[in-house]
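Re-running the complex after MR caught last week's input typo. The corrected sequence lines follow. Everything else is unchanged.
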Amino acid sequence: MTEEEAFEFVKHTLKDERITPYRKDEIEIVHSVEDCINCGLCINHCPVVAAIGVDRFTGPRSIAVELSRSPPEFWSTADKVYLCTGCGTCREVCPKNVNIPEVVNLVRARIFKHRPDLVPKGLHVVREIITKYNLAFEPWEDPEEKVESRDVRLERLGIPYIEDIIKTGAEVLFYPGCQAEELAQEVREAAKVVLSYFDVDFTLIDEMSCCGLPSELMGDDETSRKLSALLKGKVEALGIKKVVTTCAGCTSMLSKISQRDNWDIPIYHMVEYLVEEVGLVQISEALGSTSEFSDVTVTVHDPCHLIRHTSRRTMEDAIEILKAISGVKIVISEAEDSCCGGGGLVAYHSKDVANAVVQENLVAINKTGADRILAPCPLCTAQIEANLFRSGSSVEVDDLMVFIAKRLPKK
Amino acid sequence: MNTTPDVLVIGGGMAGIVAGTIAAENGLEALVMRTGQSATAYSSGAIDIIGYPPEGLALKEYFPEIELPFKTPIDGLRAILSLYPFHPYGIIGLKAEDNESIEYVIAHVSESISWLKERLAGSCAALVGDLDRNIFPITALGTTKPTCLLQETMWSDTLKAHPDNVLIFAGFSGHSEFDAQSAMRAYLESQLRTGEFPHKIGHCEVEISPFGKPYNISSIELARHFDHEGSVDHLTSALKAHVDKLGATHVAVPPVLGIEQASQNQAQIQKELGVEVFELISLPPSVPGFRLQRAMDRVFKKAGGTLLIGHQAKSATIKNDMVESVVAQSPRREVTISPKTIILAPGKFIGGGLEADETGIRETVFNLMPVTSSLYSAEDVRPANHTNVYSLSPDGHALFAAGLAVDMDFRPIDADGIEHARNLYCAGSILAKYNYSMEKSGLGVALNTGFAAGRNAVKMVREAS
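Corrected-run output:
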């Protein structure tokens, strides 16, 4: 009996046995587990272990070597794997490149499929929103209120409003991501201001739809793939040449799906686009001599989805941009690259865990003495802002794009 | 995206960071690139210079008068240089006249040790020890091992000084990585055999619950816990009862006294209890290894170097005997680096500098020719043929001495003895002809070859400009 015949023979009972075979693009991830040498270095570096201990969260190693080898009883691991914030630290420190964050997604996908009752309740709420609206957040009931909220934010920040442009054949698609579309609207507007200032030929998307990362993180693989197919169709219809986003999660997810699903379109985070395509010369011409702002000391937070899921060079780009802005002094926080706890959808069901993870960042941020912390990701920004505020810190928080847009001379 | 540093170091363990720091301190633009952590981060944190010859105790068959382990690293270096000229320490000596090479190497090692101690002073991995003697710290298994430099929280100079000393091994409830009782038994047995002090040894277990539960606790949790202000008070009072009861003069704990605060915590416990407290050496991945890597990274950054983590060198272009560029990959991006010189310090099998399977051993970036411990090409050898039957064999495994052969400037050479590229140097455990696990020389060779390769790269950049 060949392998194919064997599969044909058993495939009808797979569902009863609660087994989902691995897809072709998952096989490499599964094989990477075979390289694990059980050293445990990942446990030493895992921010969730650091925040809540190995008794509550078993740590990356056991997810890779024990939990991943327990099909069909993946469900027995649900109380652990849903606590991973997906920061990617384990994969980065792993000497054998075991792809643990993706293993987490594989295990979650199987729990979600066969034992949805064990998926944290908070995630089902998100799932309902996503399947209903193709967005990770519930859209505003009243569109006028949305506009009002946007205008209030822009006025407070002193950022001008630019009309949305939607057209085919533009050079760049600016993809704001769900968070900037619905909640942090100032980030979406800031990016438009920056792109217009540098005369980038860009368009927005007609009807915003999610990149699929939240669905993937909760284990809803089917919806995730549906959303990425939907987005691919929209991107192709627009006939653009590049995609630029301001969201760290979207950057890594779009980079992943564009490769997996053969988009043939390069994906940039805005900081990469500014440094690589606009150029530091233009940026310093625009921002190097603005005198209307008082000097400010800033520190930065490195979003996991940029540094560990995309490339650490992205934050070097961010720092280069900040260096080009006059009156900005940069101090580096000891925990600049430590997960803020906002990832992996953990905050939706175990807020105490997410907020325990961010404590290390808060201590380090306060220690820098900076006036302001900047992050090129609306999710990190929100998580850090909420927790800094709660702790009574006077450090202010900005998305990096908002900080730049505020300081651009008005055209 | 391109970048053009003066020196690109591939690998950021001890060898790579030292080489990069030497370049940065000499005013060059140094870029150290590594995937995540290094084998240094796994290590016990002890910096061994040389404890045994590559064959281990087997050398005694030929030289019965030799004292093993070496009493001092200097004795060890003299033996190595006389018997194993192609050992990395021997390569350092090739720069000197024949009759001066031993003194040259000793001076080199001495200088690198002073350099390192100076850089790490006041850090979370501050060092004690010097070249005049090998010290024998106690491990978490109750055994001892020879080393040269140790983190200051891990050593007590007075333990063996007095016959009335009383040592307690203190463990933590629910911390499965250390068992105080079995460590005590093993240590006591060796003390009785050698007749050394102390002879009075006890053990105890204290309860520390970083997350409210006294079970399922890992070393890193304890270390992080003790970094929090005031958290060591509980340990002090818990230890006090046991110290008083046994009249202890010394307390040995697993290496978890803190990541940043270990030294302060040690001082505080010592002050309040009037005893000496020190950390044991533990199995990898240890907290002291974590501290060492962290402190080394800071040394490099302070010198002005750039550390690029999360990138793995994939391939390189060589033209006219010079490496032109190296392509490195991050999870979703690629970067091309065109440096003036390159130092290859990616480690061996754990670090990923060498890969081995049943068809042979390969160097992963430049496809250089690795050699066996006998300096034959290792490209087609079966690794299994270079290991012993027993995993913990007293003869070690020749496989660990496989690696790259180099010229006197630490440039890797091909089968004809010609360097692959004029601007390519290498350092650390990717070098052939030394067996760190047998010799107890791992971080010492990394330090010294990193030091030497770094200086050679600086010299080349200066001469070219």
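None of the earlier attempt is carried over here. Chain B touches chain A through 35 residues (CB under 8 Å). The radius of gyration of chain B is 23 Å.
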